[in-house]
Amino acid sequence: MSKYDVVIIGSGLGGLLCGNMLSREGYKVCILEKNKKIGGCLQVFARDKCIFNTGLNYTEGLADGQILNKYFKFFGILEHLKLKQMDKDGFEIITFKGKEYRFAQGEENFVNTLAKDFPNEREALTLYIQKLKQICHQFPLYNLDIEDESKTDYEVLFGESLTDFLKTITKNETLQNVLAGNNLLYAGVPDKTPLYLHALITFSFISSSWRMIDGSQRLATVLAKMIKNNNGTILTHCEVKQLITENKKIVRARLSDNTEIEGDAFISNTHPANTLFMLDENVSGKLYSKRISGLENTFGMFTVYIVLKEKTFPYMNYNHYLYKGDNVWTSASDAEGKWPDSFFLYTPATSKSDKFADGLIAMTYMKYDVLKKWENTFVESRGNDYLIFKKERAEKLIELIEEKLPGIKSKIKTYYTSTPLTYRDYTGTPQGSAYGILKNFNTPFKTLVMPKTKISNLFFTGQNLNIHGILGVSIGAVMTCGEFLGMDYLMKKIKGS
Ligand SMILES: Cc1cc2nc3c(=O)[nH]c(=O)nc-3n(C[C@H](O)[C@H](O)[C@H](O)COP(=O)(O)OP(=O)(O)OC[C@H]3O[C@@H](n4cnc5c(N)ncnc54)[C@H](O)[C@@H]3O)c2cc1C
User: Fold this and answer.
1) pLDDT over threshold 90, residue 286
2) Ligand 1: does its nearest atom lie under 6 Å from the Cβ of 301?
3) Boundary (domain end) residue, out of 386, 408, 432
4) How many structural domains is the chain composed of?
5) I need a labelling partner for 165 at 20 to 30 A (CA). Which of 87, 171, 284, 373 fits?
């Protein structure tokens, strides 16, 4: 039986980054991935020569000197990526109550651009951007220059509500809604979403926003190559079913075919609740397991991947967020009769053309409840009624897109769809949750998951730690590897690179 220093369960961005950092420091790592393809949400798929992302539509903070740029340089991956900066004067177009509002890149540009629509709200916009910046500054890993972490009062920081904050800076309800108009990006819930979550994500995107040309799979491929160059092992078609313990430590991971992989330490890139499910409750601790498995998860998404007729539709270097109702907090919990009442839509960047788009991706929330009927089915074998359901839903979403982009229907060659069940089955996220555990300012510390667990040689990484998204998961991976290599050592290296 092979034995490794560190066995990593899952090859999502979190697992690959840990594999990269640890293998280059001399650890003998093995990544076990249940799917045929590595990458988790970084995976893309191709249809009719069109590449579709499944979970990385755009990313942030990659300009020189910015936060993800520093991390990606440290990981050694920046130079290998093909990036396209989005429209600096409007990378997000928020359509609310029929009117379009633009989010621009750069703090001043952001304020000046929105001030054109809200001329009496310049002060509120300035306060908004200052607060976001100040919050980012309080997180040592989002601001590598912080001198004294002890000045950060996490209890206050994690307990602030996004919607309450927006009400303190302006009485203008339209502006309050517009500022939260990209909340599909973090699955915002008005009485739960903490301000810090919005701040870390939105401020990083305002700093700079980027698309990965020809899709996000390249990120996974580059990382895998580096891991293999460092003598790391990546095994696909290896689903971990059980973690076997001796003397309260994990000694082996048992796969679905009963093969066992031995390790000194284990990092789980899968959802924490699923990980604890692989363990005997007597080892993981009943209370801990109950707390983790009881945590609420974010909503899942229904997505339409549209193949466009050749050269009929322009490439849009920005995203569209549209809300049909009178607030942007439309959620999957809304009455299904209203569905869909919002969407996020964009054209992926390709190396084929700057001018025309070959595809379009549109997504909206989908309640897991509406999928209960197919809960016990698996990808590709859910039956005809599921296909009919998906078609009906896709057509409803396309109707709403047609309202925003008149004529788009005539440009569609064909389309494909996914539901939260697709994500549940591919990435293992509970109920197809898009971004994992829901952060809640009412119970902030309960919804925080740390890399260290009750078991001394088991660690978590990935979107359920820290924050979801490429930046959040990168920082989470550094936190996890800090448990092995020391945070001071890693921080020095990141700053040095
Ligand atoms: C629809 C959607 C849109 C998104 N858009 C953006 C965006 O525009 N920008 C952005 O920054 N972020 C976006 N995100 C979020 C981002 O993609 C994720 O936060 C991030 O990729 C998650 O990485 P991860 O490493 O935590 O896990 P995952 O990518 O979920 O990977 C987990 C891996 O573990 C494997 N696995 C699970 N169970 C087992 C097991 N038992 N044995 C072996 N392997 C297992 C899975 O197959 C998978 O490969 C989006 C997410 C979704 C769902």
Assistant:
1) no
2) yes
3) 432
4) 3
5) 87
Whose Cα sits closest to atom 36 in ligand 1? 10
Contact 449 CB / ligand 1 (< 6 Å): no
193 and 136 housed in the same domain: yes
Q: Which atom, in ligand 1's list, is nearest to the CA of 13?
A: 25
Whether residues 306 and 412 share a domain: the answer is yes
Ligand 1 atom nearest 38 alpha carbon: 49
Q: Note whether 412 and 398 are same-domain residues.
A: yes
Residue whose CA is at the smallest distance from ligand 1 atom 46: 427
Q: Which of 416, 432, 448 is the last residue of a domain?
A: 432
- At 496 the pLDDT is 87
The reported pTM is: 0.97
pLDDT in tens, 414-465: 999 999 999 999 999 999 999 999 999 999 888 889 999 999 999 999 999 9
Do 188 and 219 lie in a common domain? no
Domain that holds residue 193: 103-211
Burial of 187 (0-12, 13-18, 19+ CB in 10 A): buried
